[in-house]
């Protein structure tokens, strides 16, 4: 579908000027380096009556320099900012928050589910570590890879520092951005929030929708409950919600501006369906999630085990939820087998 970005006066090449009437907030893209495989991350400054920074980049000197230089190129400084919005707790998006706040104290907004992560709440971090190790173990992951994942996780902590005072936002708006709506968009992360300008259909969406890579629906514990959220199912639900919203442009956390959001969402939903179908074909012999990982991601399953297990478990959840597969537990291990007595509804593939 054709978008209205050009009509709205938005250039889609990274630096946006919104000169057309009705667009009250200018969106400035700041591209910041990260030391991670994902590559650079985008932070955004929304300049209306107030100046609001959405995301910060990781806690590195390089990202700090790029942030300062990017602000300066637009005649801004950190001290000129009025508020900070954190899209979700991943370190490439929030790492510099503490350093920014030392430069200038300002309100910080985030979803409640992100709080224990950015505050490094010790009991939560410990419970999360146990949750993930238990999940990996039950999925058949060897101890050496679980150990390696824990070490990487501990290393990642160096790219954030705990921040204390956070103002919790759900859906709604924040005082500094009266023209923008905060939308909760869980799936990739349980706490992710987007900013949506309903008047013009402009969306700042972090990692919910990325042009060049499919976002991982990372399996995370749900703080305060014993249930494991089925993150891929949550992600699909919230992707579909965007199909019903008028959206002209999406500024993502990584990569190009998305100018055909509906087409990209349909592509992502289809890819998930194809992947689930592929996994369903691998369930003879009742494998574990780790055994399936080896087959579906032969090059990545060791190097990127946490991401791969999330991806595989997410799709298996979906197959189980829709009655295509059955989950069986045997001595603490989880195995998946195809459901052979499918109901009429499930004969053939209608998509999980
Ligand atoms: Zn992320
Ligand atoms: Zn990201």
Secondary-structure map with pairings?
Elements: E1 26-32, E2 41-47, E3 51-54, H1 61-73, E4 83-85, H2 91-94, H3 97-103, E5 108-110, H4 115-118, H5 122-138, H6 143-156, E6 167-168, E7 181-184, E8 193-197, E9 202-206, H7 231-243, E10 249-252, H8 261-280, H9 289-296, H10 305-321, E11 325-330, E12 333-338
The protein binds zinc ion (2 copies).
Word description of this protein:
With 352 residues, this protein is an alpha/beta fold. It folds into two domains: 26-119 and 160-271, Ribonuclease Z/Hydroxyacylglutathione hydrolase-like (Metallo-beta-lactamase, Chain A, 4-Layer Sandwich), CATH 3.60.15.10; 121-158 and 281-352, no CATH class. Helices cover 33% and strands 16% of the residues. It contains ten helices and twelve strands. The chain has helices at 61-73, 91-94, 97-103, 115-118, 122-138, 143-156, 231-243, 261-280, 289-296, 305-321, and strands spanning 26-32, 41-47, 51-54, 83-85, 108-110, 167-168, 181-184, 193-197, 202-206, 249-252, 325-330, 333-338. It has a six-stranded mixed β-sheet with strand order 1-2-3-4-5-6, with helices on one face. Strands 7-8-9-10 form a four-stranded mixed β-sheet, with no helix packed on it. Strand 7 (181-184) and strand 8 form a beta hairpin. Helix 9 crosses helix 10. The longest helix has 20 residues, at 261-280. The protein is globular. Residues 1-21 and 342-347 have low confidence and may be disordered. The structure holds zinc ion (ZN) (2 copies). Residues 88, 90, 188-189, 207 line the site of one zinc ion.
